[in-house]
Amino acid sequence: MSEVKIHQWMMRGELPSVLAFYYSDAHKGLETGHGENTDVTVRSSATVEDPPTPHLSG
Prior knowledge:
Blueprint: H1 3-12, H2 17-34
């Protein structure tokens, strides 16, 4: 599965049902520990994009 395909799904508001299930299940687990409607941030795991010094995103 390519990053381009995933990007296309996200931009169209589509997500394969198996991924939607796993994301939903993981978020329910977070809500159990942190409260209902817990906000999350999703970022790339591509460490090559990270600068050599600590920083805050945003």
